[in-house]
Amino acid sequence: MAATQFSSESTRPEQRLREAGRDAGLFVRQALRTFRATGAILPSGSSLATTLCRFLDERHPPDAPLSILEAGAGTGAVSRVIAAHMRKDDTVDFVESNPEFAGRLAELLETDPELSRVADQATVHAELVTELGTDRRYDVIISGLPFSNFTAAEVREILEYYSTVLRPGGHLSLFGYLYTKPVKAVVAPREKYLRQVRANWVLEEWVNSYGIDTERVLANVPPAWVYHLRQPERG
Ligand SMILES: C[S@@+](CC[C@H](N)C(=O)[O-])C[C@H]1O[C@@H](n2cnc3c(N)ncnc32)[C@H](O)[C@@H]1O
C-alpha cells in the first residue's frame, strides 16, 4: 500500500536528509521539554541501532517467524533497522509513550521507504510499555528506554514486564550511555545521582542473572553500552 506512495522524487537523498533533520529537530524539542522520559538529545546512530538488533538474525528453527517489541521507539532510528531485518511473517509492536513521537512513527509507517515496507506487520502503540498488557508474547525485545533517568522501582517494573512477555529462550537487548554515572556524580544534585545508582543496582541484578553479552558502542553520540539478556528456558 504505502510503497506505491513513493515517487523517485520522494526518495531522493536530499528528501531523506530533510526528513532526518526534521526528526532530529523533533527529538531535540521533546528532549528539552521532557528530558527525564526522552533520555537523549539525539536519536540513536546506526551502529547503536545495529547492535541492538543483533538477535533479530537468530531464529530457531531458521525459518521461524519472530514477534518483536520495540519499547521507546522515538522517531524510528532503531525501528528502521528492525524493519530491515524483518521477514514476511514477522510482526512488530512499536511502543512510544510520547504522543508526538508516536504520531510521527505512525506517519513514517506510511511514508518512510524502510518502515512502509513492514506497515502491514507493524503496530504503533502510544502508551507506556507496561500498559501494553501481559497477554502478549515476544521472541525479541529491543528496549530504548532511558533507565538511568528512572527510579529503581520503575526499572524493576519494566524489567519484570519484559520478563513476563518474553518467550523462553527469547532475547532482550537494551542500552544506556557510557559515563552518565560519573558525570552525574559531579554535576547532578545528590538525590538524582543516588536515584541513578539505585536504578543501576536493579539493572545489574538482572544482567548478572540473565546477561549473555555486553557491547560498547563508541560510534554513537553519546557513546553507549548494550546489554543482551536471554530468558531462561522453562522447566
Ligand atoms: C533514549 S530515547 C530512544 C528513542 C529511539 N529508540 C532512538 O534510539 O533514537 C527513549 C524513548 O523512550 C520513550 N519512553 C520513555 N519511557 C517510556 C515508557 N515507559 N514506555 C514507552 N516509551 C517510553 C521516550 O519518549 C523516548 O522516545
Automatic annotation (TrEMBL):
Pfam families from the UniProt entry: Methyltransf_12
Keywords: Methyltransferase, Transferase
Annotated region (Disordered), positions in chain: 1-20
InterPro entries in UniProt: Methyltransf_12 (IPR013217), SAM-dependent_MTases_sf (IPR029063)
Methyltransferase type domain sequence ranges: 69-172
Coiled coil start-end: none
Entry keyword Methyltransferase: yes
Basic and acidic residues: bias regions: 11-20
GO molecular function, one term: methyltransferase activity
Biased composition (Polar residues): 1-10
Entry keyword Methyltransferase: yes
Transmembrane segments: none
One GO-annotated biological process of the protein: methylation
Protein name: Phospholipid N-methyltransferase
